[in-house]
Every structure is written in structure tokens, then in C-alpha cells.
Specification:
Length: about 400
């Protein structure tokens, strides 16, 4: 006999998770190999769910069981600034990137920069600076405009020459002001059901005057900045593209810093490559005992799409994940609506603008889920009124 979750009535939460995924009961039933009647009874609280059924549903909805039961953290990052560094020459992807910025290339069904933008939005950050090359800035402005369609504020700045990641905090000094700041590289893709929890912790760290870097296990650590950790995952050292790495945990392209990061970036000395290395900036916080690491473990996916192979791998991952779950991942419009940054009407306008492709059709599916939930709520209120 199957074990059952007698302690929790998860029906409403599972319905909400399904709605957030833009899925119908029929679609979930087919994917999970569970009858539609079973899905309906679970959501209505008329059937106690088995562990096996729950396992299938949380996998389809791509959410942790803990997040499902207790809810994902609501991140309040109103005081934060966000930077997307989308400069660089993209020489590793020539000749394609001689004509177009790498961060504007499509990764399956959306521009590459949407993925990094979605991470900052999930972190609750609404004021974002996009740093581009001088020749590419107009193309980014045409794509993203001022960010209003996502309920955010987007500003732009230029990196004349690629002189290191830490240079972004000097370029963005006026934009950052006296605020904590997160930076993500425009060619990095992060995806995982517990990502919001990790971002929330990084926000808390920055408010407590602690910088946060994110580590991911890789098979070729010589290609990346590397963090050395003790048994409690405290950072012992950071080094840039070492010949003999001390660990296989790469420092990913996502960083959270407390206020004052621009001043610290100004103290970084150029490396042998004549660049202001982000590793050198992190080392300053490490020497002050103000650097923590968050490790992206099993269930997370991270792609640095700087080569043809990693770019193709990322596109295949997104394609497979979206087709498996019948959803669109890293979708700024969906995140904006979930964060109450845009209204249902604004989401509808965006869906209409994009209706000729699968991306726009997904937004329409999200809207149908919202409208069905609204109708269900009205019906429940009517029943309550009649039963008085």
C-alpha cells in the first residue's frame, strides 16, 4: 500500500503550481500518466495524494516539495541595483559575433539576454543597467526598450573595450550609487527549482555586508575562475583560470555585493591580461572575511554559452525542458506577472504582440490559467453566498 501525505491538503497549492506552469489538467494527466479525474480530485482535496503522485507532479511543475508546501520566498530587493554585462568581443564565436552581439543570439525560443534578465527579476531586482559595446547598444535598446513591458526600469551604458568584469562596477558607479548590487553575465543561463531560495540568501548576505558568489561543479575547471572550499563550504581561495585547479567548483557569472562595490573595484589592479579581474575583486572580500559561496547542486542547470558547443548544449537543454514540461522557462513576462509588476491586461497585450509564435502562445496559455482561476474563485464565492 502506498504511503500517503495525510498531514497536508496540497490541492490548492498543486493547482496554483499547475497554473503557474501554464498547464491544463489534461496536459498534466498525459505527462504524469495519471487520469484527469485523479488530478481534479487531488486539486479539489477529495483525494489524498501518494508520494509517487506528488513526485511526478513536482517534477512536471519544476518546484521543490519544500517550496510547494511552505511557498517560495518572496524577495524584497527594492534597494538593489542589477547589472547585465553584455559587452565583450565574442571572439570565441566568430564569425557569427562579428555581425551581432552574442547576447542577442537566440537560445531556442528567446534571446540569450532574456535568461540573465530573468535571474535578476527572480531576485526581485527592478532597476537594471545593461552594459554593451558601443556598436551593439541600439540593438539592445530596440529589443528591451526601457523595460516597461516587464515592469522594470532598464538603463544602458557602454563598455568601450573589454577590460575585465570588475570594470562593470566602475562604469556603473553612478547607477549603483550607495546601494547593494548584483551582476550577471549576459551569456550565462541559470535554471532550477530552488533558484529563488539561493537568490534570497544572496540578497540577505549583501544586506549584511557580505558578498556572494555561486559555484557549480565542472569537468574542465581550467576554463573558469575557481573557488577552493573547506568541508563546510567556506571559501578558502579564489583564482582565475588556474593551470592546476584546487577544486572543480567554477565561479559562475552571478555575483551579489554589498554597497560600496564600485569603490572596491577601483582598487583592483590590472592582471597580466591587462584586465580588471572579477576574481581579484572577490579576493578583496575574501581577505576581509566577507565572501560566501552558494553551491548549485543537483537539480540546477548552469550554462556559460561562450563557445559553440556550450551554446548548442544550452539550446538543446531549453528545448528539451520546455517540451517536457510544456512551458517556457526563464520567461520575463511570466516572472513580471507573478511579481505583480505587470497587470493581466499588460500581459495580454504582450501575448497579442507575440501571438504568431510558441512564446506568445505560452503567454496566452498563462492568461487562460489566470482567467480559469478567477472564474473558479467567483464560483466558490457564489456557492458560499448561496449556502448562507
Amino acid at each position: 500500500m502506498s504511503k500517503r501525505l495525510d498531514s497536508f491538503n496540497l490541492g490548492d497549492k498543486l493547482r496554483e503550481a499547475r497554473k503557474n506552469s501554464g498547464l491544463t489538467q489534461e496536459e498534466v494527466a498525459v505527462t504524469a500518466n495519471i487520469s484527469r479525474d485523479t488530478i481534479i480530485r487531488i486539486e479539489n482535496g477529495n483525494k489524498k495524494i501518494t508520494f509517487e503522485e506528488l513526485r511526478k507532479l513536482v517534477e512536471i511543475y519544476n518546484i521543490d516539495i519544500e517550496d510547494l508546501i511552505f511557498g517560495q520566498p518572496n524577495i524584497d530587493a527594492k534597494d538593489f541595483k542589477g547589472i547585465i554585462l553584455a559587452g565583450g568581443s565574442g571572439t570565441r564565436m566568430y564569425p557569427i559575433t562579428k555581425a551581432v552581439s552574442k547576447q542577442l543570439l537566440p537560445v531556442y525560443d528567446k534571446p540569450m539576454i532574456y535568461y540573465s534578465l530573468s535571474v535578476l527579476m527572480q531576485a526581485g531586482i527592478r532597476d537594471i543597467l545593461v552594459i554593451t559595446t558601443p556598436e551593439d547598444q541600439k540593438a539592445f535598446q530596440k529589443l528591451l526598450n526601457d523595460g516597461k513591458q516587464f515592469g522594470i526600469n532598464i538603463n544602458y551604458a557602454v563598455q568601450p573595450k573589454p577590460e575585465g568584469l570588475a570594470q562593470a562596477f566602475i562604469i556603473g558607479e553612478k547607477f549603483i550609487g550607495d546601494n547593494p548590487c548584483a551582476m550577471i553575465l549576459g551569456d550565462n543561463i541559470f535554471y532550477g527549482s530552488g533558484l529563488k531560495r539561493e537568490l534570497n540568501q544572496a540578497v540577505i548576505n549583501a544586506r549584511n555586508n557580505i558578498a556572494t558568489i555561486f559555484g557549480n561543479k565542472v569537468w574542465d575547471p581550467q576554463r573558469f575562475g575557481i573557488m577552493e572550499l573547506d568541508k563546510q563550504n567556506n571559501v578558502l581561495s579564489v583564482e582565475e583560470k588556474p593551470t592546476h585547479p584546487k577544486s572543480d567548483y567554477a565561479i559562475t557569472g552571478l555575483y551579489f555585493y554589498p554597497k560600496g562595490v564600485s569603490e572596491k573595484a577601483k582598487t583592483v589592479k590590472p592582471s597580466e591580461r591587462n584586465e580588471l579581474e572579477i576574481t581579484s575583486l572577490n579576493d578583496i572580500y575574501l581577505r576581509e572575511n566577507r565572501l560566501k559561496a552558494r553551491l548549485l547542486r543537483e537539480g540546477f542547470s548552469w550554462y556559460d554559452t561562450g563557445t559553440f558547443k556550450s551554446y548548442q548544449d544550452a539550446a538543446e537543454f531549453v528545448c528539451n525542458e520546455e517540451n517536457r514540461s510544456d512551458t517556457v522557462i526563464c520567461c520575463p513576462e511570466k516572472i513580471a506577472y507573478d511579481n505583480n509588476w505587470i497587470t493581466e491586461k499588460e500581459l495580454e497585450e504582450r501575448a497579442r504582440e507575440l501571438e504568431k509564435n510558441s512564446y506568445g502562445q505560452y503567454l496566452k496559455k498563462v492568461l487562460r490559467g489566470i482567467q480559469n482561476e478567477t472564474n473558479r474563485y467567483k464560483f466558490k464565492r457564489l456557492l458560499c453566498y448561496r449556502n448562507r
